[in-house]
Design goal:
Layout: H1 2-27, H2 51-60, H3 68-97, H4 105-126, H5 131-155, H6 166-191, H7 214-217, H8 235-262, H9 270-292, H10 297-322, E1 323-327, E2 330-333
Antiparallel strand pairs: 1-2
Helix pairs in contact: 1-3, 1-5, 1-10, 3-4, 4-5, 5-6, 5-10, 6-8, 6-10, 8-9, 9-10
């Protein structure tokens, strides 16, 4: 099991790196740095840089000029995602071989998510950054990270804790759902390039309620920059996307902050509460700084990474509210509602 745990930790770290790299590619406008998939201008290794390679690439893709810096960003992200996929495949293989000891369904489910991520990665390119696909790809990356966190929690030894009261358990689930919704809204802002439409804080365009077009803003089946009918997406629609994300950040602050403070009692969960509050403050601060500084690239990437860390902190704390873990690989119900089941 030592090899399994080492591989799991490596995959967990790599998943966080891949999420951050994906944000870097998207925010640096390199999502179409390679017009094909899985290679780049037909090359599986490297990108066209030599004169004859560039000429061949331009002949094969005449309306896609070669931009080597953007192509490298995209390919480095793909390589990292590929290594992550291999790590997860290895985890699923090990789990299947040891299925008599423990059910391997979490690892197999994770492998299925990664396969879906590969498909979404291809569609991101072939569908020319269609917002619903790009956002789904982001959510798939966050789901991969979350499932790896769950596997990691199953492997570590954690102290016995007293059962949490029903109110805290409900708050935990609400906080986790709130973080997931906010990540989806943030992905929708990013995939529609709506971050810069509100350049002031705390207002947007000098108003507490700017002109917004929520109908076209949240129509899912449309192309990038267009409405479902093909007309140009208005600034009012982009404003609605951005402002909704910013308003919901207030909900996150209240709900997740309340959960963090609720964990600060003397029952042994104080560290989890501090972790949640620290990542929440960091994420809110990064969001405000990005608006005031007009979304510098590295700060925008840090905001995406902060969302991943907040998800991890909330997920771990939620697990520690619901689950008692007595030894590595052994979970038992801790005041779980009857409809939930935990693998023993």
């Amino acid at each position: 099991m030592r090899n399994y745990r080492l591989l799991l930790v490596s995959a967990l770290i790599l998943a966080l790196v891949v999420v951050s790299l994906g944000a870097y590619v998207r925010l640096s406008d390199a999502g179409l740095g390679c017009p094909d998939w899985p290679g780049c201008y037909g090359k599986l290794i490297g990108v066209p840089e030599q004169a004859h390679e560039v000429h061949a690439a331009q002949s094969a893709f005449p309306d896609k000029p070669v931009e080597a810096p953007k192509a490298w960003k995209e390919m480095i992200h793909r390589y990292a995602a590929g290594v992550l996929g291999l790590c997860i495949a290895a985890l699923a293989t090990i789990a299947w071989r040891q299925r008599t000891r423990r059910a391997p369904w979490l690892e197999i489910g994770l492998l299925a998510v990664v396969a879906g991520q590969g498909l979404l990665g291809m569609l991101t390119v072939t569908k020319l950054l269609k917002p619903v696909i790009v956002t789904s790809h982001l959510l798939g990356g966050m789901s991969t990270l979350g499932l790896l966190v769950v596997l990691f929690l199953r492997e570590i030894r954690a102290p016995r804790l007293p059962s949490a009261d029903p109110g805290l358990r409900m708050l935990a689930l609400t906080a986790l759902a709130t973080v997931l919704i906010q990540i989806a809204l943030g992905g929708w802002v990013s995939s529609n390039y709506a971050a810069a439409i509100c350049a002031d804080f705390p207002t947007c365009q000098g108003s507490w309620w700017p002109a917004m077009d929520t109908h076209h803003a949240f129509t899912l089946d449309r192309e990038l920059g267009s409405t479902a009918s093909g007309t140009l997406l208005s600034s009012a629609a982009l404003t609605a996307i951005h402002w909704t994300h910013r308003l919901f950040a207030g909900v996150v602050l209240i709900v997740v902050g309340s959960f963090g403070f609720g964990l600060l009692g003397p029952d042994g969960r104080r560290g989890y509460g501090i972790a949640i509050l620290a990542t929440l403050i960091l994420q809110i601060g990064l969001g405000i700084a990005n608006v005031l500084l007009q979304w510098p690239l590295l700060l925008a990437v840090a905001h995406n990474t902060g969302a991943a860390l907040l998800l991890c902190a909330t997920l771990v704390a939620t697990a520690r509210v619901f689950i008692v873990q007595t030894m590595p690989g052994t979970l038992r119900r801790a005041e779980f509602p009857r409809r939930f089941h935990v693998v023993r």
